[in-house]
Amino acid sequence: MAEAASVTTFVMENRLPWLEDGVVAGVEGPFDAGVIYEGDLKRDCFIQKVSALGATLRGEMKSAPGDEVAIELASGHRRQGTIDWVRGREAGIRFKQPLDMLALINRHLINQPTERRAMPRVELRYRLHLKWSANLEPAMLRNISASGLQVEGEALPPRGTFISIFIDGLNVPAGEVVWQKGNLAGIELMEDLSWSSIIPWIREVGKNSGR
Fold it and tell me: What CATH number should be reported for the domain whose range is 122-209?
C-alpha cells in the first residue's frame, strides 16, 4: 500500500501561517517530521504549515507563549523563534530570522528519491478561471500541489464535475472536483504537475507580487 503524501503546507505569502486567533484549520495529516528544541529538551514534532516568518507545529511541548525555542525542519533548516500561541498539542512559532521559502522547497525536493520527486503543497493566492460545460467562471487559487489544487469562488461546480483550469503562466492538466463545500472546492488533476514547471511559475508570481 502506497504511503500517503504529506500535507505539510509551504505558505509563499510573506505572513505568519495561521489565523489571527491562533486557530489552525482541521487537517489530520500526515505531516513532515520536525524537531523542537526547548532549552535542554529535544522533542519530535510535526510541521503543519511553514512560511518565511513562522511555522505551526503539532506535538508534545512544555513551552508557553513568549518562550524561546528552535525548530529543525525535515529539510535540515533550523530556525530560532518564539512561541506565539499554544492550543493543546498545536503551537505557532514566530521566527527570529525569515526563511527563504524557494530554497526550502528546493531542499525538500532534493531530499526525495529522484523517481518519486513531487511538488509539496504550496499555499498562495492567485486568480484563475474554471471551465466546465458552457461555464467559464473566475476563482481564486488557495493552494496547489503536484496532484491537485484548492480553489475559492462564488460559483463553483459540484463534486464529480470534470473541469479545465486556466492559470496565467502555468499549463495545468484537466481535473475533477472531488469535494465542494460552500465557496471552496478541491480539484484532483488527471495528471501530476511536475515540480520543474511549478517552481519557475512560483518564482515569477513572487517577483510580480513584489513590484
Answer: 2.40.10.220
pLDDT at 185: 96
Q: In 3D, which of 38, 29, 35, 39 has the Cα closest to residue 55?
A: 35
Please report, for the chain, the start and end positions of each structural domain, with discontinuous segments joined by +: 9-110, 122-209
Please report the pLDDT score of residue 107 as a whole number.
Answer: 86
Q: Which of 17-31, 44-58, 170-184 has the lowest mean pLDDT?
A: 17-31
**Residue 25's pLDDT band (boundaries 50, 70, 90)?**
low
As a whole number of angstroms, the distance between CA 56 and CA 35 comes to 12
Task: State how far the Cα of 56 lies from the Cα of 86, in Å rounded to an integer.
Answer: 10
pLDDT band at 148 (very low <50, low <70, confident <90, very high): very high
| Beta pairing class for 9-11 and 121-132 | parallel
Query: What are the phi and psi torsion angles at 156 (to 5°)?
Result: -90, 145
Rounded to a whole number of angstroms, the distance between the first and last alpha carbons of the chain is 46
CATH architecture, domain 9-110? Beta Barrel (2.40)
- Please give the Cα distance from 185 to 153 (Å, whole number): 8
Examine domains 9-110 and 122-209 and report if their fold is the same.
yes
